[in-house]
Amino acid sequence: MSQSSEQTQCYAMQLQIDTFLDGELEGEQQLAFVGHVAECGDCAHELRYAQHLYESVLDLPKADFSDALVDNLVAISSQKRVHQHERHERHEGHEGHEEHRGKTGALAETFRQPSRVGFFAQLDQFFRDRLPLTIGFAALSTLVIAVVIVMAPRVDNAPQPLVAEVTPDLSAENAAMIPAAFDAAEVRMALEELNTAIDYLNRVSRQTETMIGERFVVLPLQQSVNSSLRRASFSGNEDRQAGPI
Amino acid sequence: MQIEFQQAIEKHRQRVVTLARYSLRSAADADDIAQEVFVKLWQHWPKIDHDKQLPWLLRVTHNAIIDFVRRRKTRNESIDDAVDVEAQAAEQSQFEALENNQLTASLTDAIRQLDDPFRSILVMRDVQGLSYADIEESLDMNASQVKVYLHRARRKLRADPQLRLRFEEINSSGDDAV
Fold this sequence. Notes:
The complex is a heterodimer of chains A (245) and B (178). In chain A, 12% of the residues are buried. Chain A has helices at residues 3-15, 17-21, 27-39, 41-58, 67-91, 119-130, 133-151, 172-176, 184-207, 214-231. Chain A contains ten helices and no strands. Helices cover 62% and strands 0% of the residues of chain A. Chain B has 178 residues and is an all-alpha fold. Chain B has one domain (2-177). Chain B contains ten helices and no strands. Chain B has helices spanning 2-21, 27-43, 53-74, 77-90, 94-99, 102-113, 118-127, 132-139, 143-158, 161-177. In chain B, helix 1 (2-21) packs across helix 3 (53-74) and helix 6 packs antiparallel against helix 10 (161-177). Chain B starts with a helix and ends with a helix.
């Protein structure tokens, strides 16, 4: 066997050392490994070294911390109870529990130190600390929903039509239901005055030979006045003007 | 709940501290990490699946060690070393007495020099004898990943020149005695 193929075989066998030490080599692989180690001094040496290290690692001491630290941890867990008790009593107006402080070491202060986390984390902690889980969850959900509603874009931002919508034509029956906020005679008088004003506007426009009245102002106004008169269902009235005066 | 917490400390304290001690040079730092881990256990007590308490503790310990090492790298190393020396000088625990054995001391140093997750897996499996299932759960890996990392960690240890030197010394003195 050439030197390079021996080296390759040794390398392959040494890769299997850990599997062998874990007892996971089986069948032919195990036989091949054991056979090779029996013949190869270098691999046997490597196996002894690996086994020695493995056993040394297994024998390494397990660490433990002092009972004082255990006491400290136990105190922390009880401290939180004391802290809650203090808060409860302070709420009822009782003071003077300062002697509880400083008994459990500096680490216990971690429960007292103001949290550096954000507002929402504090809020979450508040709900978890002070309320039962279900109530806390419900309250938090309500808060979230309220925030979503407030933050949601308003629907009434829809664009307004450039032209006012035409009001539905009221029948005579519906017209009777219009609250009598105005006296009918007063309305009639106002409409006649308006008609006179339009008539005046029309004459002025003719004199100045401008077309402001007939097409863009007078006719639509005239029609509007007439339809208003109709809707108001005055008895016996006819259109004041049928078109520009 | 408080009694159960105390029982959890008693049950798992050695595992947590051992993982921290074999990861950090300073025993005081390791104790701080262990304490921090148990404080977290207390804080998260209601939310923890207590059937998987040990993997949870090991995962938190592992992460705390990584965070600690990362923080230390950003600090002044010379100050940190001075603190370490003081802490180690002050500490005369049984653990350190056992470390006085030269091979054990070299081995401990070599383990501490391994990168994560090689170190954590080696400590969990070979030093502490944890099951593969617990290690998988702790480090969020599958069985084959854990085995691959473990075998590589052992090979890295074997490649450590100090350890090899110690072994050769022991080996030659054994041969001489024969």
